């Protein structure tokens, strides 16, 4: 069995159907939902490559998603040199200088981009998007915020922790509707002043069309068993990830809701495929 993990600032042409039915793709599904809306080429490839059914912990449903794994929160951070210490201060600074503040991301349509745009819309602010150039990862993107090249950033909590603890980054708020046990002292963005804000990254596995149903069923059972393993649950907890648990109808509604949410955000003229 071969697993591939793709970065979302990679060209969409790199997502190709595989004739080998043992090929699986591990993706950040929140960003993938955005890319389906942003880039018609990605959407076309996924519709061709994904099966007309999905499996969620062994349960069949009509979805492009093969299996959903976990969800995680981002943390909204600002460089210490910016002088911004709270969400309220960030919003005030952005409103005082419309279009002058900047935010980083891993690239157009990625989870960090869509989440930041959602924050901007919810807070009623405008800022300049500075996407990572090809070849740059989250470490380089965080480093730019630390250095003051961008004002703020939505970053995965485990990857921003070192700079937060060292004082190079200021944690302003957690993106989900409840606090993270990794940063219990940091309020949610909603608590910090942007009412109702909630943004989560979630991960899933995709399979090519034509994968035999018995293989899908077995993989669903294997994933469910693996996800219940104590050592894996402990690893998830240490990295701020929560296993997802939904019924078939709940999952179908969740995917639809995520797609609609991304579509609303991406209607902004600045959100387009490059």
How would you describe the overall organization of this protein?
The chain has 274 residues and is of the alpha/beta class. The chain folds into two domains: 2-70 and 201-266, Bordetella uptake gene, domain 1 (D-Maltodextrin-Binding Protein, domain 2, 3-Layer(aba) Sandwich), CATH 3.40.190.150; 72-174, Periplasmic binding protein-like II (D-Maltodextrin-Binding Protein, domain 2). The chain has nine helices and eleven strands. The strands form two sheets. Strands 1, 2, 5, 6, 7, 8, 9, 10 and 11 form a nine-stranded mixed sheet that branches. A two-stranded antiparallel sheet has the order 3-4. A hairpin with a 2-residue loop joins strand 3 (54-56) and strand 4. Helix 1 (29-38) packs across helix 2 and helix 1 (29-38) crosses helix 9 (248-266). It is globular. The relative contact order is 0.22.
Write the layout of secondary structure elements.
Elements: E1 2-5, E2 23-28, H1 29-38, H2 40-49, E3 54-56, E4 59-61, E5 67-79, H3 87-96, E6 102-105, H4 111-123, E7 128-131, H5 138-146, E8 152-156, H6 157-165, E9 169-174, E10 200-206, H7 213-227, H8 230-238, E11 241-243, H9 248-266
Parallel strand pairs: 1-2, 6-7, 6-8
Antiparallel strand pairs: 2-10, 3-4, 5-8, 5-9, 5-10, 5-11
Helix pairs in contact: 1-2, 1-9
Proportion in helices: 25-40%
Under the CATH scheme, the architecture of the largest domain is 3-Layer(aba) Sandwich
Instruction: Give the CATH superfamily of the largest domain.
Output: Bordetella uptake gene, domain 1
Tally of individual helices? 9
Categorize the overall geometry: globular
């Amino acid at each position: 069995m071969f697993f591939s993990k793709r970065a979302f600032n990679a060209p969409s042409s790199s997502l190709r159907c595989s004739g080998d039915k043992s090929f699986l793709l591990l993706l950040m599904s929140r960003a993938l939902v955005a890319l389906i809306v942003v880039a018609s080429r990605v959407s076309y490839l996924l519709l061709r490559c994904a099966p007309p059914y999905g499996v969620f912990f062994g349960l069949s449903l009509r979805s492009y998603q093969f299996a959903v794994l976990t969800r995680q929160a981002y943390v909204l951070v600002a460089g210490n040199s910016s002088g911004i210490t709270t969400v309220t201060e960030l919003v005030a600074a952005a409103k005082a200088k419309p279009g002058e503040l900047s935010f980083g991301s891993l690239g157009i349509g990625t989870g960090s981009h869509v989440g930041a745009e959602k924050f901007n819309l919810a807070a009623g602010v405008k800022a300049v998007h500075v996407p990572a150039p090809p070849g740059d990862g989250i470490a380089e993107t965080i480093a730019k915020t630390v250095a003051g090249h961008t004002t703020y950033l939505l970053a995965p909590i485990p990857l921003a922790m070192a700079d937060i603890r060292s004082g190079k980054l200021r944690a302003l708020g957690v993106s989900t509707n409840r606090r993270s046990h990794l940063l219990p002292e940091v309020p949610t963005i909603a608590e910090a002043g942007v009412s109702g804000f909630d943004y989560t990254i979630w991960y899933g596995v995709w399979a090519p069309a034509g994968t035999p149903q018995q293989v899908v069923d077995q993989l669903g059972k294997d994933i469910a068993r693996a996800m219940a393993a104590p050592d894996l649950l402990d690893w998830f907890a240490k990295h701020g990830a929560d296993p997802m648990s939904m019924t078939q109808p709940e999952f179908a509604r969740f995917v639809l809701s995520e797609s609609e949410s991304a579509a609303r955000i991406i209607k902004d003229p600045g959100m387009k495929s490059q």
